[in-house]
């Protein structure tokens, strides 16, 4: 199933940790605080455990959306999609 992860986290080190966890699970950054990819149920649960650990005691939140296959291709993009340079994110 497609998974969209978005987050709003204040501390830079935790934000970096969350981004790295998303990358570890094969998700691709689509905006500065958003990652998209395909994960099975078990991998999604593993990722959630790691994200919960990273967020423990931290101000902010991570939201995980599961997108069923019929809807995954229905994304509409308005404007230009630019490659996000990792060094410009933090």
Description:
By secondary structure, this protein is α+β, with helices and mostly antiparallel strands. Helix content is 36%, strand content 28%. It contains 3 helices and 4 strands; from the N terminus they run E-H-E-E-H-E-H. The protein has a 4-stranded antiparallel β-sheet with strand order 2-3-1-4. The longest helix is centred in the middle third of the chain and has 15 residues, at 41-55. The model has no long low-confidence stretch (mean pLDDT 90).
Would you spell out the secondary-structure blueprint of this structure?
Blueprint: E1 2-9, H1 12-24, E2 28-31, E3 34-38, H2 41-55, E4 60-67, H3 69-72
Antiparallel strand pairs: 1-3, 1-4, 2-3
Helix pairs in contact: 1-2
Keywords for this structure?
alpha+beta
**Approximately how much helix is present in the residues?**
25-40%
Strand order of the largest sheet: 2-3-1-4
Largest sheet: 4 strands, antiparallel
Number of β-strand runs: 4
Low-pLDDT segments? none
SS class: alpha+beta
Distance between the amino and carboxyl termini: 29 Å
* Shape type: globular
Q: Beta-strand level of the residues, as a percent range?
A: 25-35%
Number of helices: 3
What average pLDDT do the residues reach? 90
Concise account of the structure shown:
Helix content is 36%, strand content 28%. With 90 residues, it is of the alpha+beta class.
């Amino acid at each position: 199933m497609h998974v969209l992860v978005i987050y709003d986290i204040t501390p830079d080190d935790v934000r970096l940790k969350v981004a790295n966890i998303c990358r570890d699970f094969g998700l691709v950054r689509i905006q500065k605080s958003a990652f998209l990819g395909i994960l099975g149920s078990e991998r999604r649960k593993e990722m959630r455990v790691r994200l919960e650990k990273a967020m423990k005691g931290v101000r902010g939140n991570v939201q995980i959306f599961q997108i069923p296959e019929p809807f995954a291709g229905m994304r509409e993009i308005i404007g230009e999609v630019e490659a996000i340079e990792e060094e410009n994110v933090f």
